[in-house]
Amino acid sequence: MVLSRLKPRSALRQFFHGQASAGLMLMACAALALVVANSSLGQAYEHALHAYLGPLSVQHWINDGLMAIFFLLVGLEIKREVLDGQLSSWPRRILPGLAAAGGMAAPALVYLLLNPGASAHGWAIPAATDIAFALGVLALLGKRVPVSLRIFLTALAIIDDLGAVIIIALFYTADLSLPHLAAAAGVATLLFMMNRLGIRRLLPYLLVGLVLWIFVLGSGVHATLAGVVLAFAIPLQESPGRPDSESCSPLHRLEHRLHLPVSFLILPVFGLANAGVRVIGLPPEAFTAPITIGVGLGLLVGKVVGVFGTSIVAVRLGLADMPAHATPAQLAGTALLCGIGFTMSLFITLLAFAGQPILQAEAKIGILVGSLLSGLLGFLLLRFTQREKDLPA
Length: 393
Hints:
Distance between the termini: 33 Å
CATH superfamily: Na+/H+ antiporter like domain
Helix content: 55-70%
Number of domains: 1
CATH topology: Na+/H+ antiporter like fold
Number of helices: 16
Number of strands: 2
CATH architecture: Up-down Bundle
CATH class: Mainly Alpha
Structural class: mainly alpha
């Protein structure tokens, strides 16, 4: 038993457990989607996505079904961090909270300055950070980046995800069906009653959560939000008589089980289904359209201004402390990584410009270019910035 515990993990297992691996796989699927969409297979690619399986198309099953599982994991992470993690106290929340708020407001303002008209509905597209990509790039840098910055980025991205969930619920909701909405509210109430009654088995929550997803799908509120509601109902407390381990908590068990399929199946499939922009045949003005420039600059410039600027002001005013052993240049590099908005930005694009393929294409070009430049510049700045000497990473 002792020997088995000491045995090093296989290369494959290390790959699947690495943040960098998840980011690289998502990047590879996005690149594959771009290649396929602009090849002779492009028409077959589009046909496959719009083929119907039962009541929904393949793309809808991915965006409304599989992504509900992604949002379930996001909700679990938010609940755990707020109640028992990096966001469990106000001192821990102040700097990432202010940085996240600035990092959502500034990109939206950049976008709106360039898109004051009908296309203003896409203001939230550059406001989100892709936690998988950003942490993946950070993981590639190893000990060059202080641990405090990794914690800061993780907390910021989680608050950012919560903000994106709220934005989707408030601003990207279609016409409401009151009967479905009332039924969804009733099912959500049942879930929280199950929590209060001390039900700790995951299966009942997942079955009731499936019913909740069906009602939310028909309500006009985006179906993925059912995953967040379900997550908030999952118990976090330890099992009675077993205070020695958090692993027995239903929330921790479910979060642990979802990480691999979400990181290495659901998000790559989402990228494969939604990153395929057919640039061949697009009019030249699509590459310089206000939406394209607004999204790209929102991610590349807005995120840095919002995250770095807000953080520095908060530190200078004494509202928060600088992340330990981090330099302002390293903080700026981390802020650049926040401009990687791939997954959530693509998701909001589909909601903001539903049924408008040209506008979606423009936004996707801005997302891809802005995210690529943000990731590359952030990596280079962190790679070649000298960290504080004689201090632990």
